[in-house]
Amino acid sequence: MVSITYFMACQLLAIGGCLKLLNPQLSHDAWKKLNLPSSLILVRSVGFSEFVTAICGMFIAGKFLPIMVAAWFAIFSILTWYILRLPVPLPCGCFGKSEVPTTRSHLLMNFALMIASFGAIGIDGLAEQVTSRSWWGVGYLVVLIMGSILIYAVLTFDFALRLRSKSSQPDR
To answer: 87-99 pLDDT, tens per residue?
Structure first.
């Protein structure tokens, strides 16, 4: 179970990195509002680093790469916590395009994926995980892909699932 959650974390990290490479503007704007360095080149460089870490983490795994993936999600957790403390809701820019305000579900998901990544230290890469399960490997891949799609949907679309406190919502 930990391995599949770790591979979901890698997929989401790869998606976020790829989207920052393709459309860095929202991340650039979000980072600028947080007074972080935010040049488009920096956003694209971070996106590239996320993508490479995720792809290597999926196919190699081992002892070092899950720690790197966990470090990314630790950074995301800290930034999300900081954004949640702001008086005005901001989009996190985590997938380079979503304009959904950052919520506690973002924080919980980042933290859970960080923990899962730490729990995956020492696992085999995705190919070994799938082939070691014989025909169940197909089911493993289906669960992996569907889980990643579900997490992506929850984090990028404005569902009623939002857990943001009412005190931090703008007055209407």
So the answer is: 887 876 667 556 6
